[in-house]
UniProtKB/TrEMBL annotation:
A single cellular component GO annotation: ribonucleoprotein complex
Keywords for the protein's UniProt record, in alphabetical order: Mitochondrion, Ribonucleoprotein, Ribosomal protein
Primary subcellular site in the record, as a coarse category: mitochondrion
Name used for this protein in its record: Small ribosomal subunit protein mS33
Entry-linked PANTHER family: MITOCHONDRIAL RIBOSOMAL PROTEIN S33 (PTHR13362), SMALL RIBOSOMAL SUBUNIT PROTEIN MS33 (PTHR13362:SF2)
Annotated stretches, region: Disordered: 79-104
Similarity remark: Belongs to the mitochondrion-specific ribosomal protein mS33 family.
Keyword match Metal-binding: no
Basic residues compositional bias, start-end: 83-104
Native organism: Erythroxylum novogranatense
Length: 104
């Protein structure tokens, strides 16, 4: 009966030694407890730079002339709306103010 216990101890030691050697050779992380580990996520390559290369550079952020032209277009469009009477209302004369003053 004691030989069965000794045999199981030797088998467990050999199995553990083989697992450690395999982990060392193939670069795996040994996790004998089986608990969750972030190693799977951390060993992945970082892909942020690669993803950033897929998208073209936005010239509007860097060029002040482009931003000035866009701002001028916006202002001219707003002026056109105001001349037609479709611009934003003056402060205190919008929908909310009309609803509040309706009951008085």
């Amino acid at each position: 009966m004691s030989s069965g216990g000794l045999k199981s101890i030797v088998v467990a030691a050999v199995t553990q030694g083989v697992a450690e050697a395999r982990a060392r050779i193939f670069g795996h992380v040994l996790n004998p407890t089986g608990k969750k580990s972030a190693h799977k996520i951390l060993r992945k390559k970082i892909i942020g730079d690669k993803v950033a290369q897929w998208y073209p550079h936005d010239i509007r952020k860097d060029d002040p002339l482009v931003m000035a032209r866009l701002q001028q277009e916006r202002l001219s469009k707003l002026e056109m709306y105001k001349r037609r009477g479709k611009g934003p209302p003056k402060k205190g004369q919008g929908k909310g103010a009309m609803k509040r003053n309706k009951g008085k």
